[in-house]
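Example 9 (inverse folding). The structure is encoded as follows.
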């Protein structure tokens, strides 16, 4: 009897395909942070709420795949790596989606204004953090080939180079996050004190998108090294 469940079909093909699919949803959540902040700058609260719903839908899809992976991965796979290591990678992927969801939820629950000096730096930071997430997704797309080669050889060297590039992008995101934080503190007297605290949190969460993306790469680097 043929299954009509797309999740079941996904896992039947390959649990690693499911892991890659999970990452695609996580990156979709991260990408939506860009139009979310654009709507915030434009003062369009209706659009913010609409984008928040899109993030929640993508995050829910990621959660469905994550829960299925957690239940199947330890019992059904024979791999040249520890199952727990791959579950750690999954956890970092999931943190990307969760962080995007947290950003959206805060902007809906507490409408904010973006001070003019922060607008362009905020968008530069967001764009670079999304770059990190996308680079991390490219690394995950190599997972099948990496496992097939036993985490050795030319494929491993290629992934190592991709992870190095991911680290470079994350370093740039860190610099942009620091720049934006300095701008916030320079103008804190012009902003409601509670808003200053909320902005500090939002800046940190935005930077976390790149941090979690880098951690995905770092954990795959450890698998290669073992």
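The amino acid assigned to each position is listed next.
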């Amino acid at each position: 009897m043929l299954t009509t469940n797309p999740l079941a079909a996904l896992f039947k093909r390959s649990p690693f395909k499911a892991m890659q699919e999970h990452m695609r949803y996580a990156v979709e959540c991260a990408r939506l942070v860009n139009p979310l902040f654009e709507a915030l700058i434009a003062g369009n609260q209706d659009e913010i709420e609409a984008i928040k719903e899109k993030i929640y839908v993508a995050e829910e899809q990621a959660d469905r795949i994550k829960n299925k992976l957690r239940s199947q991965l330890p019992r059904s796979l024979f791999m040249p790596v520890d199952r727990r290591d791959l579950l750690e990678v999954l956890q970092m992927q999931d943190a990307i989606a969760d962080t995007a969801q947290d950003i959206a939820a805060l902007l809906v629950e507490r409408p904010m204004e973006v001070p003019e000096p922060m607008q362009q730096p905020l968008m530069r930071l967001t764009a670079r953090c999304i770059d990190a997430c996308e680079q991390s997704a490219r690394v995950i797309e190599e997972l099948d080939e990496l496992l097939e080669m036993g985490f050795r050889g030319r494929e491993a060297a290629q992934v190592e180079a991709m992870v190095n590039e991911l680290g470079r992008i994350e370093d740039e995101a860190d610099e942009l996050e620091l720049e934006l934080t300095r701008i916030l503190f320079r103008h804190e007297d012009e902003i409601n004190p509670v808003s200053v605290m909320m902005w500090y949190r939002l800046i940190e969460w935005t930077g976390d998108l790149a941090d979690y993306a880098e951690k995905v790469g770092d954990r795959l680097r450890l698998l290669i090294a073992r």
